[in-house]
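Late entry, written up from scratch paper. The run itself happened at the end of the previous shift, but nothing got recorded in the book at the time, so transcribing now.
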Amino acid sequence: MDLKDTRESSKKIMPRFKLEKRELLLDDIFYSLSNIVADAIIVADSRRRTVYFNKAAEKMFGCTSADILGRSISHILPQDILSFNDKVKNKTKDKFFEVLGRKKSGEKIALGISASGWESEKGAFTTLILRDISEKKNAEEKLLYLSFHDNLTGLYNRSYFDEELQRLNTTRQLPLSVLIGDIDGFKLVNDAFGYKHGDELLKSTAKILKDSCRAEDILARWGGDEFVILLPKTDIKGVQEIISRIELKSRQLASGEIPLNISLGYAIKKKPAENIYSIVKKAEDLMKQKKLIQNKKVSNAIISSIKKKLSAKSYESTEAAERLRKLALDFAKFIKLPKPETDSLALLADFHNIGKVAIKKNILIKKTKLAEGEWQIMKMHPEIGFRIAKSSTQLSQIADAILAHHENWD
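Output as recorded:
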């Protein structure tokens, strides 16, 4: 047979070869491609039985093809299958939707699904392409959480509170009470003990308030060291019960290193015609009035706590402090200092080093010469002491003297 005859023969054989091998070839191509892609691919028949399950699907659901082939797709997609069919009944268009799948272990998995219906001589089928969107859903939930919550305390933020205030401002929620609280001496704590301690105080306060409220109450961080609670269907008796719980828990926590006191003010909307924002303003004003009364008492308690902590950190003896105080008073008497200035000098003798409360203990008690960096930290204590004194009604009169007590007055 010459080359020409061979070519003619090949032309006759090829179509027959294509017809015989085409179906097998397409099956092989589909199997190969479907197992290369990272997405899970599942094919279900008109009776919702799984007829194809690729390698990615096995990995996604933690089961083998043998576990699922021939069984209802509801074993891995527990949503209403009738609803699922409705989504893909229009065979001319692909559908995309999100569902919760179920692994063999029972664990739920968030899935994005593209579904396409098609028909062949063997019947009607639906092809599902599935992708794990758990990370995406978790990120969305986190963003949603952060948009309505305060990052530090975990309470609702002011934006969420404002929305809830409008939602609950209805006749059926009356009496609607508003309770506003503010941490007394918070700035003083921040200046004396640092922002880390201030943050811990905020979180402790948030826990106290949360533990004192009911499930239906809306508790939010109002801003800074202020908190607000919205109490639907709550009369004066209910408000006072919550205040009593807050005050009791605050006293229990106040036994620690940092005293805690929360000034609380409340107001109640009893009639539909009352303006809810006027109620909020009234609660805030009452809180501020109470804060003015409590401020000196709490400030003194915090200063006393600071003084004890400083004594423990620097090992300054009581005898040495007393000698310094006596020396200052003797000097004031010798130069005939007026009584008000003598009192301030005595106070300065007691608290001139108060800024050292924020200096690390290993620097304060170091026996050898301080390194340059340590010396720079030590020299900050007059400025720290100045800020502490400025935040205290008890010490504000000697704040400038504390700031200047290491100046060279030559």
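Residues 9-14 have pLDDT under 50 and may be disordered.
(Scratch paper discarded after transcription.)
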